[in-house]
Write a structure and sequence with these properties.
Mean pLDDT: 72
Structural class: alpha+beta
Radius of gyration: 14 Å
Low-confidence stretches: 34-54
Number of strands: 7
Oligomer: single chain
Largest sheet: 7 strands, antiparallel
Order of helices and strands: EHEEEEHEE
Strand content: 35-45%
Number of domains: 1
Amino acid sequence: MTADQYVTVDLNGGTKETALDVFRALGGAFTPQPSTDAFLTSDPSSEPATNPITWARSFLVDGPGRQIGADHHLIGEITAEITGGRERTAYVLDALRAIADVDELSTNGRGTQTRTTVHLRPA
């Protein structure tokens, strides 16, 4: 597949469990890139209760692939940035709407590419 046949999904913020929940929900139809995993924290010396470790994960979508199970629901809040061709990006957004409430924060387009940032909350 060429680069324009993929969509990149970047998950930022939230907890590791929430990021992994999104990954699992989309994982049946998507190709993960585990080398891009990263732990982020603004102040490593602060207590976990006041400064939870956040999780960032990027993976490539090669879908449309299989349908997401209707019984899956997001367990926490997280922000996702979806970048790729318009049709494939729309497919990923529809897939995310199947598991979460999706607030669209911004959409930018250039040529055939689209970058959409959304905030995901449990449905």
